[in-house]
Specification:
By secondary structure, the chain is α+β, with helices and mostly antiparallel strands. It is built from four helices and seven strands. The chain starts with a helix and ends with a helix.
């Protein structure tokens, strides 16, 4: 009663805050998965947890007190984002989160190994980590339509030449003769035209 909460917060010095925040940032996260019968389950591992730290799974509202330097969280759904807040049990520095770690699990495509995907593996619809919202029948229809587009022969541009094409080719082949001739001829016409006007 002699020390209000505000004065207790002062007892958590800046140096202590920086130390705890640095240790919280140094926690690493990674995930692994198991795949079975067209479904996938993930587990997230948080490592390098310091003594006296606790982890709060914000999405599931679960707190993991310190029980060692590693926490494994199993049976997580694909295509879901998680936030893990780090706290310390220090009486004065433990009121606020020290750091938040974010993990986003990829979406899983249960049809990626289907026979209809043979030869179409480079398309997102046939890749393992693609969000799939189509039913199986709609998926097959979509892949088959992509195959038809891929198999459609590419039309070659017409090789038929008209008169202008031949004239252009002739000019490009002999421009070093034609261009000077036009220039000299033009100068000559201008010269004679001016001379004729001078006589009048």
């Amino acid at each position: 009663m002699l020390f209000p909460l505000k004065s207790k917060a002062i007892l958590c010095t800046n140096d202590e805050k920086v130390k705890y925040q640095t240790l919280a940032r140094n926690i690493t996260t990674n995930y692994t998965y198991t795949e079975e019968n067209g479904t996938v389950k993930f587990q997230i591992t948080l490592s390098n947890i310091q003594y006296g730290f606790s982890i709060v799974d914000v999405k599931n509202k679960v707190t993991y007190p310190y029980k060692g330097s590693e926490i494994i969280i199993p049976n997580l759904e694909e295509g879901t984002s998680y936030r893990f807040d780090v706290y310390t049990d220090d009486l004065y520095c433990g009121t606020n989160s020290l750091y938040s770690h974010y993990v986003t699990l990829p979406s899983y495509n249960p049809y990626y190994q289907d026979s209809v995907c043979v030869g179409m593996e480079s398309y997102p619809i046939c890749q393992k980590w693609t969000k799939m919202t189509l039913s199986y029948e709609d998926f097959k229809v979509k892949v088959e339509s992509l195959k038809k587009v891929e198999e459609k022969p590419i039309e070659k541009p017409s090789t038929h030449k008209n008169v202008y094409d031949y004239l252009l080719e002739f000019y490009l082949q002999y421009y070093y003769i034609i261009l000077p001739t036009f220039i000299i001829g033009g100068i000559g016409i201008i010269y004679f035209y001016n001379k004729k006007n001078d006589l009048f």
